[in-house]
Structures are given as C-alpha cells and as structure tokens.
C-alpha cells in the first residue's frame, strides 16, 4: 500500500530534479510511438539534439524560438501564482504585435532610443489593457477569467486579420495580408550578424530576473503571493486583494504583449496573422514545467523551443512527422503534473497486514 | 480491585503505531466492557485519534491486536485495515464534525448505506419502527422528516447517534460530543449516554472537558505522548489530577487580577449587521467594551457572533446603527482600516483566515503590517529586519518551529495560533477581538492563549472574547453577553451569572425568565 504524506517544505533541488526528470521521462515515452513508426529511435533523438543545439546556428535558432516562450511563460507564471487563470496570452501577444506596428511602422518618426522604448511600452500596455478588462470583470462581477480570456483570443485574432486586410494592409506587399514593416529605428538589433537571434532574448531574460526580484523582494510581490496562496486570509489581514489582482493582470498581459513586440520588432519585421504558432498557449506549458518560478521559465522555454526546433530538423532528415515535438511537450507536461505529487507529498510504502 | 463482572466487548492489546521516528501509539492496552462509559483523555497529539483510526481500520497497527465480542459474546480478532469490518463488528463513531447529507432528511440519513444501492424504495415501515424503538429507549427525540440542514446542531448530533444505533453498534465512540452543545443539551446527551449504557452499550467518550468526564464516566484512560499513563476509576479523581496526568506536569492555576475598566473602546448603539434573512446576523445590538476588561460573548455558533466578529474585524460594515472604536465611527467593510485603528484580530479559523500556509512564519508575522516603514523601504521588503523581529517573537511567544523561514503550514495548531497572537499582540492593540481563540488547542496552548489575553487586559486593552466554550468564557470574562437569533443580550457581570442561566439564554430564553 502506498501513502502520500504531505511535505512541510519542498526543497529547491527536488523541484529542479522533478522538472529535469519530467523532460527525461517525456523523451523516453516519446520513444514508444517513435519506435512503432519503425524509425531508428536513437538516431532520431541524436538528430533532434543536433538540430536543437548541435552547432552555433542550431543553438541560435533554439534561442530565437525560446524568446517569445520566455515572455509568455512569464505571463502565465505570474498570473497563475496569483491564481489568475490567464489563458489569453495568445491574444495579448497579438495586441502587443499590433501596437508595435501601429507605433513603429511610420506613424512616429524618432531616433531609436526614443522610438524603441516607446514601441515596447506601447506593446506592453496593449497586452496589459487587454487582460485588465477580464480581471476587472472578475473582481467586480466574479466573471470567470478562463472563459473571457480564452474567447478574447479569437476576437483579437479576427481583429488583427481585419486590420491586415483593411486599414493596416501594406500597399507594397503584392496583395498579401500583412502590415507595413517597422522602421529601422523600431527594430531590435540582431545579436550576431547573419543569424536570426535578436535583442528580444536579452529583454526576455532581463524580464525574468526582474520578475523574480519583484515577486520575492517587493511589497507588491509579497501581496501577490499572499493573495494567490490564500485570498481569504489576505483579505482578512487587510491586504488590497483587488489591486493585487489588477496588478497581476497588468503584469501578465504586459509580458505577453512584449512577446508580440519582440517577434515583430526583433524577428519578422512586420505583422501577419500567423505571427504566433500558439506561443501564448505554449507559455502555459512553459510556466507549468517551470513550477511557476520566473527564473525556471528560462530553462523551461529553452527545453520546449529545443524540442520544436530539434524535431523540425529531425523530421527533415528521416521523414518522421514533426508532430512528434507536440508529443514530447505533452508528455513533459503530464510528467511534470505527476511529478508535482512528488514535490508536494512524500511517498511512503506501507506494509500490508501488519496488524 | 475485584474483577468487573460485566462481559468484555472490546479489547485492544499492545497497540503500537509508528510514523517514522514518531511513536503515535506505544503498546496501548484498553479493555471496554458492556455497559461501561470510558473516558479517553489526552492532549492533541497524545494518540487518541491514531488509536481510534486503528480501531476503525483507517490505519493498521504495527504491533498489537484488536478483538471484539461477536454476537455470542465470544472475543474474535478484528481484521486490521478495514472500515467495513469495524462497522460490521458493531463499532460506531460520532465524529466532532458530523458526516450527514444535509439535503436529506434525518430518516434518510439514518438508513443511508444500510440497504443495497439497487433497491428502488427506501426501507419503509420496518426501519421506521426500529428507529421509533431506538428513540424511545435512548430518549433521543428529533423530527425525522425535515432536511438535516434545518435541524439545530444538537438535533443533528441526535441523528448521528441514531444512525450508529440503527446499525446495532455495541461500542459507541463519541468524539468531543459536547463541544458544540449548550449546557442543557449536554445534560440531555449525558442522560442519553447513561440510558444507552444501562442497556449494555459500551461507550468511549472522548472529551477535554474534565468536569463532564468526571460526572459521566466510570473509568478514565489518559494518553500522553502516545502511551497510556493512567487507567483508573473516576471515583476519587479530580480535575487537577487528571489535568496533570494529561499534561505531564502541574498546570498552573490562572491568575486573574481584578479588572480596572476605563473608557469604552468599542461602542455599538443599535447596530445591525448582515442581511435580514441571513442566519448569522446581528439586529439592533448595543454593547460597550471598555479598556481593561474582557467581555465574553456566549452563544451557539451561527446566532450572530459571526456577524459581530465580521464587523469588528472589518469584513463587514454596519447596516444600521452606530459602531465606534475609540470614538471614531466605523465606515463599512475595511480590514486594513481596523488594523490601522489598532484593532488586534484573532480570527475563528486560523487556517482559513489567520495564516497563509505556503508563506513562512516571518511572512505571516508581518502579514498585516507589510507596508509599515519597519518592514519595507521604498517598496522593497526589509527581509533581515523582519526575520530578526520574527525570531524575537518566536522566542517571546514560545513558538515551536524550525525557524522564521519555515512554512507556517508545517506548524501545529497551537504554534500557528501563537504566531497569530504574536502578530496581533505585539502591536499593543487598543481592542482585541478573540474569536474562538482556543478552538482545537490542547491544554498547554490554551492556557498560554488565556494568559496572553489576560495580560492584554492588564495592559489596558479592551478584549472582546467570542467563544462557544462556556468554561473559557467564565474563566476569562469580566462581563458576559449572550447572542441568540441575532439578538445580543446586555452584558452582565460574570460574577453574578452561572452556567445554567447563560445556557438557557443561549437557547433563547431571556435573562429574567432564566433566573
């Protein structure tokens, strides 16, 4: 018989070990369907590893892919810590992207040190305001934020499509529904010439560190943690529960908005309706893999990005579908959820029939 | 001692249960005979719950055995680890927190689980007749045909007991049965227990109210630190010896100097709280709590003390009337405003309202005051300063914990309450709201809380004590008011009141009528 005994404290090493273990278990589980397709399992994993980090170019590609995932992972982590279930990072990402092209594609002419911060702040604000609405609805009327944020994703995406077919359509784009390119002054610099890796990565890592400090060291971070862990006791103690929730909404939406800005201003240069292959939703996976720790989001995003980039490369080499990447990530998510049991409980084996 | 002629019904022999390094039960022997009322005494963590859980098959003992008499009176071993086997063997338990389906009637609750799930009709007449007979025998009168949610706590408890009797129990375990009852209801329960024992039922009575144990039980078994430290007839025992056996050292008598009340700190004039239809509400209440006195509020839970506590704690505002603290009129719901007005609030439920389990002891210590300059500078938390003060409070309030950085959920209830007390009292509040401050605490922790409240009163704080424990109210209060169905009686001098009068007032009789 197995008993689960609650742990008083979860050591940090255990949380880290569970996350890494989950990644390993996920890869092992993926080997089963991989073997069933008849593909050489070992070769496939080697190709994946090479594709994700085998050389500088591959590594840069993984880092590029991880950049928006860090932002959306942070967005989910900060919201979920406060038990604000923001499923709308995808929509907030597009809102940020829309603000980036609105401000950065010629409306304002200014030197880069003015325009770049302006674009970033504008994108963050767009995402923040988009999430603030459901949060205020939740505080005021008790509206379920899961439903509202999820549905807003579709509304925002349709709105972006409308803008790209209409007022924001680039006349020079041969009829393609895409926006005008952002000005050079509103473009994030490339980190290495010739590669796609851009300054967004630096911003993302900076955001993770700042968020970590904010959550653990500031009064408002304390209030957010208190509200997230026990809103009733926080209210009894006189903490501003509503304001803390609203602040979480602004932070989470803002971070997701920055993901959009980073993709447009750092990578694509213009906005299309297929800017994000689901970075907003993947952020939830990243945050969960990271156990909602802002610093943990960085390796978690690297793992997810590496799996996707590596699987693309592998599928080109041996013809296994790159849907395998979704499988790895899904297995990893399930493994982490099961592993969460280990962090919250000690598992004790009890001999039966001793009485 | 001459051997007891009554037949043995239950025998626990050498029960030992270890959880890692902790020995929760250490070779405990316990024999219970038919018709006997045995008290099981012990502080929290003494091993009572573990022992009962083993009896019920929730845990399996590492060593020792349980035997129970079968229908012919022969002792047969009870297989461990099976709740079904325990129930089938005739062991019944009434838990402190009832296990009733609130939307079903009393009758449905009693027969629930005794018939096959596939039977379409509930058992009708046969079951009715049996329950009617049990009610007549035990003196348990209750309306069987209204949903349990509409019954009072005392009536729900009768349903629970009938539920056990209906299953033909031979051993009935009552876990803190009087904790929720008025003195009159407790008397009636005692009469029932005596009647049942006279018919041959063996009763195990778990309680921490020593005077009840002495009045009702023939024998008392005391557990301490997992071991049985006494098994003796109650005849010749007194409260002091039993308390000393439980705690393991003499319990100091409470010292309570006479009150020197000053000006009113909390003043209610015609105050109503809560919606008119709500059960726990306050209607048109008048109350003064003066500096340097303890005013106790007695009443069965849900009669309006929750609304009073919510008002003082700042969770609710007054619907009408005038509530003042130190002459300043209270605006609506504003917990932070109450903290600023020097109200120290000890909530009823320390897990739900008083602490945040995942945060550390130090963080919980500054929960109310995180924005004070002592705790933050420019929005950054002063971690070293907070840890140092939390460590000092841990020392001063004798909180047993690994340190200020331990998650508070790892602490025992008593130590958790000490952190809450430290948070509240370190700020030297003008008014202290103590809502059920010792619920679930053992004797040691309870005496500590009482000492602290009396010290706060001595310092000149006004203390509003809301409790369901009349012993506690009489031990601490200078004046006592009773709340019933939303109406608050005038606060009367505690010295001129007795438990029976307060009990009648709790049941809805006026003070004049009760006297």
From TrEMBL, chain A:
GO terms assigned for molecular function: transmembrane transporter activity
Membrane spanning residue stretches: 12-36, 56-80, 92-108, 114-137, 146-164, 197-215, 236-259, 279-311, 323-342
Keywords: Cell membrane, Membrane, Transmembrane, Transmembrane helix
InterPro entries: ABC_transp_permease (IPR001851)
Tree of life domain: Bacteria
Stored Pfam families: BPD_transp_2 (PF02653)
CDD domains: TM_PBP1_transp_TpRbsC_like
Compartment(s) where it occurs, according to its Swiss-Prot or TrEMBL record: Cell membrane
An annotated GO cellular component: plasma membrane
Membrane topology type: Multi-pass membrane protein
Protein name: Nucleoside ABC transporter membrane protein
Source organism of this protein record: Ancylobacter aquaticus
Lineage, top ranks: Bacteria, Pseudomonadati, Pseudomonadota, Alphaproteobacteria, Hyphomicrobiales
Automatic annotation (TrEMBL), chain B:
Keyword Nucleotide-binding found: yes
Secretion signal, residue range per the UniProt entry: none
Domain ABC transporter: residue ranges: 10-250, 266-510
CDD domains on file: ABC_Carb_Monos_I (cd03216), ABC_Carb_Monos_II (cd03215)
Any one GO MF annotation of this record: ATP hydrolysis activity
Keywords: ATP-binding, Nucleotide-binding
Pfam families recorded: ABC_tran (PF00005)
InterPro entries according to UniProt: AAA+_ATPase, ABC_carbohydrate_import_ATPase, ABC_transporter-like_ATP-bd, ABC_transporter-like_CS, P-loop_NTPase
Family, as annotated: Belongs to the ABC transporter superfamily.
Protein name, entry field: Nucleoside ABC transporter ATP-binding protein
């Amino acid at each position: 018989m197995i008993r689960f005994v609650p742990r008083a404290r979860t050591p940090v090493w255990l949380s880290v070990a569970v996350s890494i273990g989950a990644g390993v278990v996920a890869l092992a589980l993926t080997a089963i369907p991989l073997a069933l397709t008849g593909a050489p399992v070992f070769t496939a994993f080697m190709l994946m590893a090479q594709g994700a980090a085998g050389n500088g170019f591959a590594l840069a590609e993984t880092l590029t892919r991880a950049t928006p995932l860090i932002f959306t992972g942070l967005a989910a982590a900060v919201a979920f810590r406060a038990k604000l279930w923001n499923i709308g990072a995808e929509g907030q990402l597009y809102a940020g992207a829309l603000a980036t092209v609105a401000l950065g594609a010629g409306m304002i002419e200014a030197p880069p040190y003015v325009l770049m911060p302006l674009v970033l702040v504008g994108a963050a604000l767009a995402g923040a305001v988009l999430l603030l609405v459901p949060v205020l609805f939740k505080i005021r009327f008790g509206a379920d934020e899961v439903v509202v944020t999820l549905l807003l994703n579709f509304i925002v995406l349709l709105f972006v499509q409308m803008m790209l077919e209409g007022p924001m359509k680039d006349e020079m784009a041969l009829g393609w529904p895409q926006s005008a390119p952002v000005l050079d002054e509103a473009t994030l610099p490339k980190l290495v010439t010739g590669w796609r890796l851009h300054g967004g990565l630096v911003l993302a890592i900076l955001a993770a560190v700042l968020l970590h400090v904010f959550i653990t060291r500031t009064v408002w971070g304390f209030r957010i943690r208190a509200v997230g862990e026990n809103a009733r006791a926080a209210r009894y103690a006189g903490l501003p529960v509503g304001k803390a929730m609203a602040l979480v909404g602004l932070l989470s939406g803002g971070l997701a908005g920055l993901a959009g800005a980073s993709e447009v201003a750092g990578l694509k240069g213009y906005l299309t309706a297929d800017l994000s292959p689901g970075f907003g939703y993947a952020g939830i996976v990243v945050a969960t893999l990271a156990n909602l720790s802002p610093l943990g989001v960085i390796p978690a995003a690297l793992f997810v990005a590496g799996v996707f980039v590596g699987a693309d490369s592998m599928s080109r080499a041996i013809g296994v579908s790159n849907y395998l990447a979704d499988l790895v990530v899904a297995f990893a998510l399930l493994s982490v959820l099961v592993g969460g049991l280990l962090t919250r409980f000690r598992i004790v084996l009890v001999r039966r029939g001793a009485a | 001692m001459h051997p007891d002629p009554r037949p043995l019904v239950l025998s626990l022999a050498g029960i030992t249960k270890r959880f890692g390094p902790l020995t929760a039960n250490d070779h405990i022997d316990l024999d219970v005979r038919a018709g006997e009322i045995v008290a099981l005494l012990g502080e929290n963590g003494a091993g009572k719950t573990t022992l009962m859980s083993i009896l019920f098959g929730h845990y399996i003992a590492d060593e020792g055995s349980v035997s129970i008499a079968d229908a012919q009176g022969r002792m047969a071993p009870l297989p461990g680890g099976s709740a079904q086997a325990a129930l089938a063997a005739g062991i019944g338990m009434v838990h402190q927190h009832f296990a009733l389906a609130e939307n079903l009637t009393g009758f449905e609750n009693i027969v629930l689980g005794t018939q096959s799930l596939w039977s379409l009709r509930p058992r009708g007449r046969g079951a009715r007749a049996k329950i009617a007979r049990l009610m007549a025998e035990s003196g348990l009168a209750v309306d069987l045909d209204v949903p349990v949610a509409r019954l009072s706590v005392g009536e729900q408890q009768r349903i629970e007991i009938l539920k056990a009797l209906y299953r033909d129990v031979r051993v009935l375990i009552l876990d803190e049965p009087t904790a929720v009852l008025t003195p009159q209801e407790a008397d009636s329960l005692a009469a029932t227990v005596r009647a049942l024992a006279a018919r041959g039922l063996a009763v195990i009575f778990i309680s921490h109210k020593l005077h009840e144990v002495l009045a009702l039980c023939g024998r008392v078994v005391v557990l301490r630190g997992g071991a049985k430290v006494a098994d003796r007839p109650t005849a010749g025992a007194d409260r002091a010896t039993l308390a000393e056996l439980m705690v393991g050292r003499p319990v100091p008598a409470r010292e309570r100097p006479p009150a020197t009340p000053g000006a009113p700190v909390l003043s209610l004039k015609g105050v109503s709280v809560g919606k008119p239809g709500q059960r726990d509400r306050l209607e048109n209440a008048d109350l003064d709590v003066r500096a340097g006195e303890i005013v106790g509020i007695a009443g069965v839970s849900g009669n309006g003390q929750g609304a009073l506590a919510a008002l003082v704690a700042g969770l609710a505002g007054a619907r009408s009337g005038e509530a003042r603290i130190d002459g300043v009129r209270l605006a609506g719901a504003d917990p932070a405003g109450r903290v600023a007005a020097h109200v120290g609030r000890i909530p009823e439920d320390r897990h739900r309202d008083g602490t945040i389990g995942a945060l550390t002891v130090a963080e919980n210590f500054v929960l109310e005051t995180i924005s004070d300059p002592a705790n933050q500078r420019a929005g950054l938390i002063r971690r070293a300063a907070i840890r140092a003060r939390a460590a000092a409070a841990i020392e001063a309030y004798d909180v047993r914990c690994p340190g200020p950085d331990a998650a508070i959920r790892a602490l025992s209830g008593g130590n958790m309450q000490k952190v809450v007390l430290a948070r509240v009292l370190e700020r030297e509040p003008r008014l202290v709201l103590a809502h059920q401050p010792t619920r679930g605490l053992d004797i040691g922790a309870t005496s500590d809380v009482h000492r602290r409240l009396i010290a706060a009163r001595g310092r000149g704080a006004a203390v509003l004590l809301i409790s369901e424990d009349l012993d506690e109210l009489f031990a601490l209060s200078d004046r006592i008011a009773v709340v019933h169905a939303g109406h608050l009686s005038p606060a009367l001098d505690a010295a001129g009141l007795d438990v029976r009068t307060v009990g009648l007032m709790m049941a809805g009789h006026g003070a004049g009528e009760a006297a």
